[in-house]
Amino acid sequence: MVISTEGLSFNFGNQQVVRSLSLQVPEGSIYGFLGPNGAGKTTTIKLLLNLLKTDQGSIRVFDQELQSNRISILSQIGSLIEQPAIYLHLSGRENLVNRALLLQVPEKRVDEMLDLVHLKDAANKKAGKYSLGMKQRLGIALALLSDPKLLILDEPTNGLDPNGIIEVRELLIRLVTQHKKTVFVSSHLLAEVERMATHVGIIHKGEMLFQGSIKDLEAISQPQIQVEVNDTVEAANFLKKQGLTVTGVNDEHVSVPFTSKTQMGEINTLLNRNGYTVYSIRKVNKDLEKLFLDITQNA
Predict the structure, then answer these.
(1) Where in the chain are the domains?
(2) Sign of CA dihedral 268, 270, 272, 273
(3) DSSP 3-state assignment of 151?
(4) Whose CA is closest to 60, among 32, 45, 69?
(5) How many CA atoms, within 13 angstroms, populate the side-chain half-sphere of residue 8?
(6) pLDDT digits over 204-223, tens only?
(7) pLDDT per residue as tens digits for the range 57-66
(8) CATH superfamily, domain at 3-219
(9) At 138, is the secondary structure helix, strand, or coil?
């Protein structure tokens, strides 16, 4: 595990913001840290970056205890918390050169980063003239200058238009698949995380409600069979009389719990033989947004 916490807790005065949190972030993953606004995501990230001191619990990064190995750990982490810290009157290249000097990083890394985040053509343009997506990509380039093993990003797509969101998503996938980084990204844009994350943690009111791979998350959801049929109400009543559980009916389709492909075929045949016209029949998994709502509303 690149990040591992046990019993991590933090209070702002009398308010407990993080409650006994146990994070497990595997190496080489894109870990989506999900939760509504105010769930404790940013506070947790500040604890991981040692910007806040833990009240209780332990934090291990790269299998080392954070407090006693602070310098060596943080030197291997790149981070971007909400908005990138860039100088708007400087060009993209000048921002990177300035940071490279501070970090004592070879200047050749600047061109490598501009190329990586697809800003080479805009390298000499003032950062103040960049679009939001370009600013976020420049922020990620700044975070990557020192070639960190771990990238921690807090709401990196916040305020971006669809093109900007796609740009950042593709960059993060590229960092993991081609450059062997581990990415820890917090977000409340669930559909976006679903498109790129390999693992997720769902936090609500400071508590971890679910943690595991995307496949683990899908496994806790009962898949459904959606049948698009000519008369949904009559078809639903008919299926109930045959002993099947109907979980949903609307104007377009009837839903029943999925158990096997054989069962799908049997339902299709049953409806056809009894005068119903089946337009389509398919297995449907709940998307991340529905799973998230199920988990947080039942908490």
Answers:
(1) 3-219, 224-285
(2) positive
(3) strand
(4) 69
(5) 30
(6) 888 888 888 877 776 666 67
(7) 888 888 888 8
(8) P-loop containing nucleotide triphosphate hydrolases (3.40.50.300)
(9) helix
